[in-house]
Structures
1.
Amino acid sequence: MSITISYDSLREQFSSLQPEGSREYELALTKYAEMIAKQEKTEVLKELINSDLDCAYEAFYCLCIIYRRNKDFELFKALLDDNVRFESRITYNHLVVQYLVNSETFYDFDSLLNMAYSDTKVFDGNAGYLQAFCNAFATIIDQCDEMSKEDLVKDWYDVALDCINKAIELDPDYAKYYCTKARIISLKNDFVNADKLINTAISKEKSSRPDYVLTIQNYQYYRAKIMIQKSQYEMEKKLFLLQQKIDELQMLSSEKDVEERDDDRNEPHAYDGESRYSFVSYAHTDKTDVYNIIGKLQKKRLNIWFDEGIQAGEEWPEVVAKRIVNSDTVLVMLSSNSIQSANVRREVNLAISENKTVIVVRLDDVTLSPGMKLQFSLYQMVNRDLDDERSLVEKLASAIMMEESNE
């Protein structure tokens, strides 16, 4: 498309646009913005914006695109502030979202996501608005803290994945969509396919676009970021397995000094059924005492799961997390050994974040830090040193059955 940029020529071009909110409307204004920026004729846009002509909004839209692409966010904000008269236009919300996301001046994550998602409903079938929402989701995830990230991924991941898949279906040749999808699926550790999607974005990008080099650099930036995520994920898995090995070695060492138990203390087996159950968090060095308690609880027909129930080949972090989330009650076997276990701490934190009923069994005279005292102060605690073993098991069984009867 080749036009002479002037006041009259823009009026003529703007008058022939497709309906506002259509993909054709958005793409045409994007092309005009590219040509105007290249010819440094933004003053023509400003004249049109300040006029009473019907095309004043289209000039405003074009200038928003130019400021966003040039990262002139102060000018972008001033343009929005000076033209609140356009708030009633159906695409105005989209421009505000673009400013907030690209300038990274957002604080209320859910509010911004709801703003962006509302456009996907108003303009159903417009791939550009689907992409805008998905980009907002991925960008917010990049910026927020870990706790907020977990909540946002839980609430919005499936919605975002559905939207970006729909955008690709509507416009399969638009390169940026593939990069956005890569950013989304990497949140669920699908790094292999994320890397393939970045390659697809690079191969589909048009070399004729004025910011081609910058765009490719942007794709490479996200590739590097995804690879860093992959390295962190793999390192966490290795550390988790290493901690398990350390716990196993400590357990083997301690078992040398433990006398054989009678039949009442035979090792129990983790529950593997569809009914309700309790999860036990413990240090492997306390295995003998903990298994004795679990065995007595199982004799009372209570379903108990502990990490003996992980099958060969399964990933420990995923299985343990799933078992905690699906349990009714979490029994924390607290001891001088378990407070040193990183895995026990992670299990307790997940149980608390999932609002599970937590029952703390104090196996020995473990000294709790002020922070741990505060963490466990809201939960029922049974002290083994104050009760004989039968009384301890009776109290635990009663607490578990009471929780199940309240459901």
2.
Amino acid sequence: MNQRLTELVRLFRTFMIIMVITFSTTVVIGLVLASFNPDFKQTSGKAVKMPAGFFSNLLSFEMPHYQAEAHIGNTNKTVNFLLSYLLDVDFNDPKALMGGILPGMNTNRSTLLYPGNDTEGAIDYPSDDEHHVPETGESENNHSANPAPAPSPDNEPSEEEENTIEPPVKTVSAPEIFVYHSHNRESWLPELPSVKKESLAFDKKTNVTLLGERLTKKLNEAGIKSLHDASDYPSIYGDLYNGLDSYLYSRKKVKEVLATNKELHYFFDIHRDSGPRKATTAEINGVQYAQLYIIIGAENPNWESNYAFAKKFIKILNDKYPGLSKGIFAKDHSQGNGVYNQDLALNSMIIEVGGVNNTLEESYRTIDALTSVIARLYKNDKA
């Protein structure tokens, strides 16, 4: 019996040594890669959860006398970190632990920072799973040849829409707002007649870049000089394109634009969500609108500043368009990128306009409302 127990202990010890060596090698390789590419750190948020004294605890496995007084008792944290790394579960998060036990509990749920004023009262969390975006960035077939009829960005707004847009402000010489799209091919099922699966609602032409085009056009008409980038990353990168690297592609673009436009003040990354229609649609004065989600990167070191900016925005939105806002949500790396390029500028946020089951017309209505809110925010900041 004692011999068998000794053998089990030896095997366990060997297993732990192999784990420690493997993990340490992975960390070293990651640090080497990060030294060549400062953006590499965005592909994983696990480093931010590494406990203090971690490497001291690794050494203490093999050198018990090395365990310094300051690190006594930390072995449990080290084991928890190793298990969290291997299983991708935060053992300090009850929601993560219970997610596999209680039916309906979503372990990938983002955190509500500030509520919207959806009249239904229920919280509908953003549904995008950014770890599983299509590798090609679009559906299997090219559906752009015969898209469903959709309103043109040049359509004249209705009388009601004209009354909601702020009067023009004094035009400045340099652009102050940048609108772009990390997931530029996100589209809508109603606009792609031959597409039946929500997961395939991506298109080269009929996509969220139309929303950015309309937004910047109306902001410029309101006297707020704005830039729009409609880069099609799958076309740019070709066979090298990887949907999981979307925020690295857009990060490069944001840096390029910042280098030549020093006066840029606001940065809006426009998306659409993947939730069901009932969770992304609001009726305001008898008209259907695509509702808005605001996303803040929880792993951006300056997230508080971006959150403060988003709160100013959403307070105006809630006041002017009751029911249009879903709220401000924070996401870490478990729901996506976790930073979303928001470390590059303080006034940055993701705006998700409706969902995959909304129409382009509903989304355009929301963009017109969004123009009014941004114009008011701009005026308040300039006052």
3.
Amino acid sequence: MKKFLSAAALAAAAVLTLSGCTDSAAEPSSAPSEDTSSSGEMRTIRVAALPIAETGALWGAMAEGIFVDYNLEVEVVPAQGGALAIPALLSGDIQIAIGQPFGPIRADLQDLGVVIIGDYANSLESGRDVNAVVSLGDSGIESPADLAGKRVSVNSLGAAGDVTIMKAVEDAGGDPATIEFVEVAFPDAQAQLEAGNIDAAWVPDPFMSQIEGAGGNIVVFPYQATIPGLELLTSITTQELMDSDPDLIADYSAAMAEALEWAAANEDGVRAAIVENMGIPEEAAAGITLPVFTSEISVENIQELAGLAVGYGVIDAEPDYDRLIQQQ
């Protein structure tokens, strides 16, 4: 049986850059010709997001004033993983979480009323992907099969990271049941590797590039090896909020669709937002591999991911996809 360990590894300085971030000072890039919101009133919406490069699309769109055009003032609050944001959604502390689809999958199995309302970012189908399992240069871990019997960190246990890693290891001839998964926040992964507390780490950029740049190995791009183009992050809310405030959800969804279209067409703007909000050098941001930004979710990809999770015993059953995924 594979083992899951919880490490006391909380996001540090990179997470703090998210705290209290709002677009209240953002000016629209151009004055809208008409009110694009449903209500006409400025509303604050709290959105949980990870301190990773993909959030550059959200930060950049906020700076462009895209959400203000929809009379939305976005407050970004820190998150370590989509599953960890579910309690905050259910309590009403946040209205939206941008996270992996696995948190909502688990929540649906418990009939908690959590809904995926749109995509946000996908992995790349070929070439260098946006996340990878990495190891130190002298670790001897260079291929997926080498991960068998090793301690591998993920930011959230029992989610897409470990499911796709297990599939990649199995496909390479290794025994995925022997992997020991450890929960470590992305910003802490390099320190945990160097301390010898883990053997390999699953991380996105900029952490992937930082570890590789320090002489580390790219072991495998697990999403690409398993389900090319898999959803990295999705927009998540509750059925209760959709029912009680449909205008808010409609305006957020429309604003986010525009934001992601902007991000897909403005890589320089996304990278500039990463530099500003994550405090990394411009040259480092220039080397980051960006995902495919899109608001349209692939139900087939989510079904394949959940099916793999059932096969590995990560979850007991597949969710009700019609209830779980309600594209806005």
